[in-house]
Each structure stands twice: as structure tokens, then as C-alpha cells.
Amino acid sequence: MIIRIWGVVQGVGFRPTVYRLAKRLGLRGYVRNLGGMVEICINGDAREFLDLLVRELRPPAKVEGYEILPGECEYRDFVILESGGEPGMIPIPPDLAICDECLKELFDPNHERYLYPFNSCTNCGPRFSITLRVPYDRANTTMGVFPLEGKCLREFTDPNSRRFHHQAISCPGQGPRYFLLDRNGLEVHGNPFEIAAKMLEGGSIGIMKSWGGMHVIARISEARRLRILLGRKQKPFAVMFRDLRTLEKYAKISEEERRILLSRERPIVLLRRWDRGALEEIAPGLPYIGAYLPYSAAHHVLFHHFTEDALIMTSANPPGLPMVIKNEDALKMKADFYLLHDLDIANRVDDSLVKIVGGKTAFVRRSRGFVPRPLPFRVQGNCIAVGAELNNVGAVSWKGRVYATQHIGDCDNPETLRFLEGAITRLMEMAGAGNPECVLMDLHPRYNSRMVARRLAERLEVEAIGVQHHFAHAAALLAETGVEEGVIIAMDGTGYGLDGAAWGGEVIKVENGRFQRIGSLSEFPLVGGDLAVRYPKRTAFGLFRAAGLEPPFEYPELWDRALKLAPRSTSMGRFLDALSFLYGVCDERTYEGEPAMKLERLLLEERWDSGPEPEIGYAGGRKVVELRPIMEYVSERGSAAGAVKAALDGLLEIALDEGMRIGVTGGVAYNVPIVEYMKKRIPDLIVHSTVPPGDAGIAVGQIAYHSISSR
Fold this sequence. Notes:
This protein has four domains: 2-80, Alpha-Beta Plaits (2-Layer Sandwich), CATH 3.30.70; 178-341, DHBP synthase (Alpha-Beta Complex); 376-473, 2-Layer Sandwich (Nucleotidyltransferase, domain 5), CATH 3.30.420; 484-685, Nucleotidyltransferase, domain 5, CATH 3.30.420. By secondary structure, the protein is α+β, with helices and mostly antiparallel strands. The protein is globular and about 85 Å long. Strands 6, 7, 8, 9, 10, 11, 12, 13, 14, 15, 16 and 17 form a twelve-stranded mixed beta sheet that branches.
């Protein structure tokens, strides 16, 4: 009999497990990678063998489906064959944190892999980041240039070894190596990790190459100097802590956060700081720090030599450009030293970033550790989606599965657009995807990602179709939760509306495959257009004028004359920005989402039991939350939480009138006090846990919208 299995079945010790089981049972036949699947031929009962196999598998290996076909096994023994080339589902697992067994070897002075920075096995290490093509064999990875010899070869061919058929296996002296370069690009001789650690302790700033890209690294006390070097005036830095016990000194950690921090995926987790003073320069004005633990052997080796608690370890990328992955490009960035290695990176993969919101894991960035796994829900149609513009991600659907690319970034430069197109193309190749039905894109006419959509559509000879931004947000939420119909409150900074206005505080009804905007915040002007995004005072002025009130602050007379030409918005994100200015939190946005993110600290501290009653009006054929009572409350020195509560109550009132399930999505859905208040009002509120609520989920939402509206 022939068994074909798909799921997480390559690069995870799957074939060795099959081999050992078959040998133990005395079976004849073979096992081989077949494109995106594993094919097994045995001279025995297929279902009984499958039952035993599933019990033997260790994470991250996973059987997601199989088929049993008739076939003869004309073999005298059981063997592992060379891989076949038929296309199939993506078989490659993500890069996974070093396992306990490899970590034990790493710090055993008597082991040949003692302090070896590339230590890994079938249970851990780089996979996606080093994969050039499927099937996942050594020759198809960047590790293929390093020969298998001696001890490595013996382990690779030993069925009892943890590294049996481990395609990324390497040994000291035979595999890739780390080396240290000074600021002039000259090699520094000696132990690169020991020297780098001493330089860090002396105040140096370095660049370190990891699995999927480069990090800028520095001790915590060098944060101010690092801001000057990178031109990041206020943007928070990610911090890698030595271990969980050390991290607990700096942040409050729930059981769920603890589980995620220690998981194989090892993402950055946004954690509440214990006090305002600790790490303030790391995340100025924010209640959270982005913290994570070492995930590669190299990180552990560096901390072995480094004596302090933590290191700033943030993405190394020139302003606005993707993270650096080539050694020669790293040398173009200013640093005191460069801790690099000679294993090429095939796929750029930024660190993933999550936050616990409303009791669920909300992805801010779904990348390393999770990509290229398919998302755990099904859709109709075979499509490509290019997403939106900021914090972007692409996606592909094929044979009911949805695959999202790794984090792409802001599509405001040619290099990022090439990265987006290349990542989508690579994803299609790995999935064995044929020609799609269409290419999906945002409606905003000035989004650069639309150029990628049109190029792909032209090349594949299919249509490029626009999907409204907030409809995509709503569709993503419904698809991942399996809720077919409902009323979704979509709140974010901006999204191009069907009327050409900047939407962002919307109530969207989804019924019978139809998406309808049934409510929103009342429109207000953004004085100066994009300048209102950078300077929230302008948005605050527009809110007061839209409410028919005099702003309680000084402003140029020119602003009144500019009202008629100002673009109109219904954005909750812009409303929060304005409150951030009005309550003295933030008067200039220096990075995406800054004013609203800093307002969250105030909203966490304030009580949510006061505020005006919302007033509901009508405009443009929909219900709207009137601004006047809210802005009057603000001008009378009411609390920020009271103002936000009133706006939310208005949107919830519109949603509740429909008598359907209610959900929340969009960038505002990362705001803990806002979502917790909504859950208090609506205990069964639908929230995200798989697809990012923000714009990193738009591409998946575009595919979900196409699926839902095509029913």
C-alpha cells in the first residue's frame, strides 16, 4: 500500500521516524519526500501503521491529512529514497527555537558541540530561512554548500541519532562559522563571541547576523546613543533577555505570556513594565516593552560571555527598507563591530511580535516561527493578495488553504515592493500553486502595493480586483473564527472608503455574503491631510469644528480657511491621536501608531465608569456617532477614558441593534483597555487570535472577502 501524508512533514525528522517504526515492525518498502508531501510504501496494514506513526511523532511534526492508494512494495528491506518532485502543499516548517537536548549539548564542555553556535537537530533550528526550494533536502538549502563528512555524516545516516536525515546538520570545523569584523570591515581574530561580548559591555554597538536576518545589538544603557545612530527618535526597541527569571525583574508576566515566551516559536511579546522608570528609554511613553528570549544557539553563546541581564536586539534595517540579510549590506550600516556568519539567508524573516489582548494572542507581526505554516481555516478560491501599504504582508490561497508571507514592511520604496513580489512568488512555488483566479489589492489609488498586484495579474493573465480595506479586516476576523455572519466594528488609522473618504471607525454588517457599512463615527476634517496624521493637534481642531465647538487651544487662523478643502475621516485611530494631544500625551507622531499607543498608558490608569451618553444621528444613509457631546465632555476636562468609552458605546449601540454576533478588528483592536471594555459589554465579542488585527492581516482578509462574497 502507498500512503501520502501532508502537513508539517519535512525538516522535522518525519522520514527518520517512519523509517524507525517500519524497521521495528519488520516491514518492507520506502519513505520519500514527494514535493510537499511524504510518500510511504509498505507491505502491511496502512491504517494500523498510520495510527502507530501519529503516536510516535514529536512536535513540530504534524499530520494534517493523508490518502491511501493501492500499490506494490517490491523491496527486500525498508529504505529512505531520494526525494521526488511532484508539487504539493508547503511542507517546510518554520524556524524553531533551539530544543532542550541541543541546549544541553551546547553547555556540556565534554560534548563536541560545546558552545557551537549552529547547533540544531530534527526538532529545532533554521528551516524556512535557509530553504531555496522544495522538497526540503540539504541540496535545496543554503546549507548544501557545506559537505557532510566524518561525525556529521555518521549522525546523518544513523537511524538512532536525533540528527538522522537532519538536512541542516553541521559540525564544528565542517559547517558554517561566525566571525567578527571591526568598524572598518577587518576581521578581529580570537573568539568572536567573547570579544563581541566584551565590546558590548564597553558600550559598543554591533550588528549580529542570526537565522532570518540581522539585528542591531547594544547594552540597555546605550539606548540613547542607538536612537541617534538609527534615527529612531521615539520608536521602541526590542530587548532580548538572558532568561525568563531575569525578565521577571523587569516585566509582569502572565501564565499565557510565559507559555508564549518559552514556546518553540519564541516571538517578541509585548509585556507590561513593572514601573515607568525601568527601560523608559527603550520604549518611551509606552506601558509595554517588546521582550523575548534567546532562540538560536548563537544567542545563548553570546549571553554565555555577556555578563548583563539583557541586550537591545532590534531589526537591522536602513530607514524604511527591509531588514538586511547580506553581509556586504550589513557593513554599509554604521556599527562598532559586525558579528557575522557565512551561511546565506534564503528567506528574510523578521522576528514575530504578539500581544495578549482580551485574553487572546493578537499577532502584530506573524513571521519567524510561524511562516510558512498555513493558517488554520479554509477558504474558497485560488487567489493572490498583495495586502495594503504599511506593515504589509502578502498571501496566497490554494486548494482551500491560506498561506501568508513573512513580514514585508512599508511599501514605500522599490526594494520593499520587490521583496513583496518575491515573497509571494516563492510562496506560490512552495505551495505548488498554479494560476490563480485573480489578484486582490486595496482600493486606495495611491498604494504602491497595487503596482505589484497589476504586475502579477499581467504576468499570470488574470484580473486585479480591489477590496475595500475595512471589509478585508472584517472578512479576516470572520474567516479565522468560523463565524459566517455578524456585525464587525473595524477601527484603525485609515482605510480608503467606497466614497473616497478616510474610513476608520466603521460598523460593518456581513450577511448572505454581502458587506454593508451600516454605521461609523461622524465625519470630521483632517486639516492639512497627511500633516494631521503627523501632528494630532490638527485632528483635534477638526474634531472640535465638526462638533460645532471652539477648540480650547490656540491655532492659526489659516486652519479655519483650510476646513473646506480638508479630507474627511471617520477614523477611530485619528480620534485617539487627537485625544493623545489633548491630554498632553503626544503632540507629534514620529512612528506609525505612536500617539494612540502612548494614550493606552493613560487609558490603562483611568477609570472607565464615566463619560457622556452617546448620541446617534444619520448621515449618508447610515447611523453615525455624533461628536458634539464627546467633544463637549473633553473641553470640560472629562477623562480620556470617558471620551473613548462614549465613542465605543455609540458604535456598540449601532451594532447591537442588528441582533447578530459582534466582533472587533483593525489596529485599534491591539488596545487592551478598549478591547477589555468592549468584552465587558459584549462577553462573546469576536476577537482575533490567528490573523493580525492590523494591516498585516489585510492580505488574508482580501482572500477571505473574495471567498465569503463568492458564496
